[in-house]
Amino acid sequence: MKKFSRLIVVLLGPPGAGKGTQSEMLHKEFGVPHLSTGDILRDSIKQGTKIGKEAQNYMHKGELVPDDIVFNLIESRVNEDDCANGAIFDGFPRNLSQAKNFLNLEYVKNADLVTSILVNISDADAVKRLSSRRYCPKCNKIFSLAVKPPKLENGTYICDNCGTELEIRDDDKIETIKNRLSVYHSFARPMLDLFDERAILRIVDGNQESTEVSKLIIKELS
Ligand code: AP5
User: Catalytic amino acids?
Assistant: First the structure.
């Protein structure tokens, strides 16, 4: 495996493509943090911060949170010490404006490898996966009732990592999933075109077991 002084990988794809799942794999493989704007925003909602209160209105409907909020969160997060050697970006950038701001960050310009990986799945598969997702509100670990059901204790699903009761995400209701997919299809294309023009876009087929998807991603980074 190549060694990088700063590795930046951006996981792209529709809701349910497996960005969070694959980001955790990359975090373990390369030892750089997994930065999920969705997780950061959900934590802000839980903590009842001003940003969380504003973001909740958008996330509840499956709409994008305003660019300036998300960009400020990312800009301050990448300046933390643990990001010095790189980061795995999950859910950011999400549209053309965020992508341009991302590429203009000194943090990104100074990286020796910047790669974006589009994990493609069909909308029908996205709906199926998200309908059977559970997540841990404490450590953010993701589970699938369909692929590998989590531990069940007294009729409740439990996180095998920290023992917390698992939850269904507020935006994993069918109507909200459909809107999230529609938002993705409305905003992603110009961003993907920009990454393609910059020759930093790779595409992998996400319609297979997650270990197979991981192998394809690692291959693209080798
Ligand atoms: P975010 O949290 O980023 O959600 P998302 O992009 O909709 O993606 P998901 O987390 O739903 O799916 P995923 O691709 O990570 O799949 P996962 O690995 O979990 O964003 C939520 C909201 O926050 C947005 O709608 C927006 O409001 C706001 N937001 C966030 N970032 C923003 C930004 N930059 N700008 C503006 N607003 C922003 O997998 C899904 C399920 O499938 C799991 O159960 C998993 O176990 C299972 N699974 C994974 N891989 C496989 C496989 N290969 N086969 C079968 N099952 C699999």
Answer: 19, 94, 133, 169, 180
